[in-house]
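PROTEIN DESIGN WORKSHEET
SECTION A - STRUCTURE
LENGTH: 207
TOKENS:
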């Protein structure tokens, strides 16, 4: 019984160690990408930012591209939780647009707070890779949300595919500009994006 308990305990420690190592690599990658940019970053740069050996790095990732993709996946996964909360509370198209944009702009501001405070010129925005499974899932959820909530608000037919692309594209482009401004104005970006999208929706619904 004691041997069995020790085996389980050791297995748990190994799992925690693996998770900690992976997290250390992702955190280091985010810092390096923010500091010198993706193109200039090498695997060696990321390893030097951790206390891990090179061999340990390659137990988790094969390249800087995999690290970058994992950062985007990790961030997008966490943002999906925020989008779920918006979905649960928004009752109108306006509420959804406003709250979803606010959640996104707040999230990327928080994600890049350290990089911004250190004057890092390259922010590791979430959603840079639009073809990752997590990002595709987010896009599908947003499309479903818009289709559901607009069907209750309007009687006209709006191209949901175009609207989803416009909503996501606006968030990505405006988010990048917002992070470059001082101060970072989450509320201002939210109001501009949500009002612009809703103005477009109202015009399309009136046709």
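SECTION B - SEQUENCE
RESIDUE ASSIGNMENT:
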């Amino acid at each position: 019984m004691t041997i069995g308990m020790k085996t389980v305990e050791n297995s748990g420690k190994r799992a925690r160690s693996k998770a900690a190592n992976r997290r250390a690599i992702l955190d280091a990658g985010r810092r390096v990408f923010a500091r010198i940019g993706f193109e200039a970053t090498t695997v060696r740069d990321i390893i030097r930012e951790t206390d891990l050996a090179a061999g340990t790095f390659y137990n988790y990732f094969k390249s800087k591209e995999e690290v970058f993709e994992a950062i985007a996946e990790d961030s997008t996964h966490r943002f999906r939780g925020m989008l779920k909360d918006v979905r649960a509370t928004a009752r109108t198209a306006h509420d959804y647009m406003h709250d979803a944009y606010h959640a996104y702009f707040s999230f990327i501001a928080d994600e890049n707070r350290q990089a911004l405070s250190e004057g890092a010129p390259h922010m590791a925005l979430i959603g840079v890779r639009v073809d990752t499974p997590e990002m595709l899932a987010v896009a599908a959820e947003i499309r479903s949300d818009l289709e559901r909530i607009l069907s209750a608000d309007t009687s006209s037919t709006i191209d949901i595919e175009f609207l989803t692309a416009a909503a996501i594209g606006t968030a990505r482009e405006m988010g990048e500009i917002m992070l470059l401004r001082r101060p970072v104005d989450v509320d201002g970006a939210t109001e501009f994006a949500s009002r612009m999208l809703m103005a477009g929706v109202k015009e399309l619904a009136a046709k």
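SECTION C - NOTES
The radius of gyration is 21 Å.
The domain at 70-207 is CATH 1.10.357.10 (Tetracycline Repressor; domain 2).
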